[in-house]
DNA sequence: CATGAATGAGGGTTCATTCAT
DNA sequence: GATGAATGAACCCTCATTCAT
């Protein structure tokens, strides 16, 4: 049934969100399957119908958000825009995730403390693909002489570091909206390339 | 005995280092007291001779490195230098910690996942003092019209975020020395203020 | 399910009995959760499905037997009987518990060695209610001039002390049945009031 | 050295008293060697110079008080007095211990929760000797037809139970002095034999 | 599909005991 | 004689996981 599959897919997304919420609040190890189930008004046992085990649940969760973000960022990279505009768009998209998907985003920041072996490897590869998109955009700008820098990796790491830090201090009740922050950051960070 | 006290103090530092190492590698929750003890060629029980419990051990560890860094950074802020030079020095010092005290540094990045209640409060207060030193230097530069920016907090957060991210990618076997990185970062980050 | 609840209630009673047995034999501190679980042919972990922790298990156990005995004794006090007959009945009931619920009874004798704070307070309050029933009966007898004594509290404490000591020496293989003992005790103890 | 031995003996008595104090307050299992040492302003290790181990310490403590009480009670039994006066004296002596050596006394009430095997056997034998002194006095009274009862054991157990219960409620800040209590108890308990 | 119940492995912590100094 | 330090066994408790119903 297509309808059924859609329903299941929707349910899984709900589960991801709840899982992310709990994991972000408590950390992976302190978040129990019971906590996650309770957030979903389910019993612990029911989760095992949908997922093999805790790591599997969180891994899929992790993978989903990463894949989504990767898609968006790759789409931006392939647009017919100037490197500067691409980078601006990429920065704003990243910050949008950092703020508006705070829970998911927060959860994936340090995968080394959650996963080992294969899962970790898969996650790290996808992250590498993600960061390499930024590298490509920056190098494109360097080639076109839009950007002036001798060290694209360093710049990329500054940019990502600065953005990933946002979720440690951002609060919706703070004085700045997500858009303002994205605007300010992209303005400032692009300065690094001029 | 003063000699005895010195010995104990030295031993405690060793313990801090080992604890930080294990916690950084595995995360607070996965690092067992046994792991930490093994790293020190001790038994688990011996740790409890020196510390009340796991949280106490890690908290003291946490507090030590934070206090040290705070002292250094405050000393820089009180020097008789131009804001630009102060900021440069502060950035280089911070990066020096991030790289050369990687284990300690890494451990303290997200205290929310380790501590709760009083310990967390104490840590967060000290962190606030740390970040406010950066704010002061930046504002000093703005007042002297050495720096051009309308939003010192934002700049500070970009700077700290960029620096704190270093430990996620730095490796001593990478192509760049700690000094090079510090140099590059301070050059680039100061651009944000020009 | 009402049926399920009944089952659970029954199981809990079983657990109380086993817990009391082990605690009486070994004392609270030496009785391990594993001991109690083994007595029930369960694993340790299963106990934690029903009770929050060891103290909780023993407290509930404690509270149950105390409440039951209190109910019986209060019922006797409210009967339409002479104080003498009431006291006789109360004594016999108490001794019946002391002997036939030896394990439960024994466990609750010195709550100070088991509980602290709130739990202890609750237990002590209920015990006070229990002893005050005896006081009421005795005072009723004094008022009706059935009993001759100037110090009802002292009498009550002698009576309770004498009865509570039974479980230190009673053995089902001894020469006296529970009924004989109860008979003898009530005869003798009532002498104190004549 | 006789002087030295005396000193040591005195020290040991001090230790017994401290140990009894701690054990009475916390119970045998909750009283740690450290607690006892702290009470004596010693370190834990030093206790092991005087005693083989915890059980040994408490056993000796136990044995001392029991032997003392036994001596006193046996002396009374061998006096040239009427059984009635002997029993009165014995009761008063026992109550004096119960109240004025509350800590020691309390500790020895339920040896089954402290000792096992040989130590327990020794204690129980000495207790048997103690109770048999009461039996002897009562039987003497029966033979001389001073006392009227058919069941001396039962009487003895009532008497001892009543007296041993005193320490659960006695407080120096209560309204009755030790002497008053002893007086009242001996009056009342002797009634059981008339 | 979902639940209640149970398991078992593992971690934090305590503490009697030992021992070099 | 005494101390600081260390050990190791045992205990309470948690929780991912399983499974009968």
Task: Write out key terms for the chains shown.
homotetramer; mainly alpha; Tetracycline Repressor, domain 2; 9 helices; 75% helix; 0% strand; elongated; DNA-binding
Short synopsis of the structure:
Chain A contains nine helices and no strands. The first copy, chain A, has 194 residues and is mostly helical.
State the order of secondary-structure elements of chain A, H for helix, E for strand.
Answer: HHHHHHHHH
The coarse overall form of chain A would be: elongated
Task: Output mean pLDDT of chain A.
Answer: 91
Q: What's the story with the biggest beta sheet of chain A?
A: none
Largest interface: C-D, 29 and 30 residues
Oligomer: homotetramer
CATH architect. name of one domain in chain A = Orthogonal Bundle
Low-confidence stretches of chain A: none
Helical residue percent band of chain A? over 70%
Kindly report the CATH topology of one domain in chain A: Tetracycline Repressor, domain 2
List the helices and strands and how they pair.
The structure is a homotetramer of 194-residue chains.
Chain A: H1 2-26, H2 33-39, H3 44-50, H4 54-77, H5 83-100, H6 102-107, H7 117-143, H8 152-169, H9 178-191
Helix pairs in contact in A: 1-2, 1-4, 2-3, 4-5, 4-7, 5-7, 5-8, 5-9, 7-8
Chain B binds a DNA duplex (21 and 21 nucleotides) through residues 4, 8, 32-34, 42-46, 48-50, 53-54.
């Amino acid at each position: 049934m297509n309808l059924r599959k859609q329903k299941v897919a929707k349910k899984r997304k709900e589960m991801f969100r709840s899982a992310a919420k709990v994991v972000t609040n408590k950390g992976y190890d302190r978040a129990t399957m019971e906590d996650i189930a309770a957030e979903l008004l389910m019993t612990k046992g029911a989760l095992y119908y949908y997922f093999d085990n805790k790591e599997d649940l969180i891994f899929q969760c992790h993978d989903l958000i990463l894949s989504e973000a990767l898609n968006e960022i790759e789409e931006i990279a392939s647009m017919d825009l100037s490197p500067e505009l691409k980078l601006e768009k990429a920065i704003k998209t990243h910050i949008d995730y950092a703020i508006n998907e705070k829970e998911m985003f927060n959860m994936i920041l340090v995968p080394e403390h959650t996963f080992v072996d294969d899962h970790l490897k898969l996650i790290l590869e996808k992250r590498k693909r993600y960061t390499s998109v930024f590298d490509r955009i920056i190098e494109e700008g360097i080639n076109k002489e839009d950007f002036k820098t001798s060290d694209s990796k360093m710049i990329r790491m500054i940019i990502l570091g600065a953005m990933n830090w946002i979720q440690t201090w951002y609060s919706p009740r703070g004085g700045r909206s997500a858009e303002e922050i994205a605007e300010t950051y992209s303005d400032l960070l692009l300065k690094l390339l001029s």
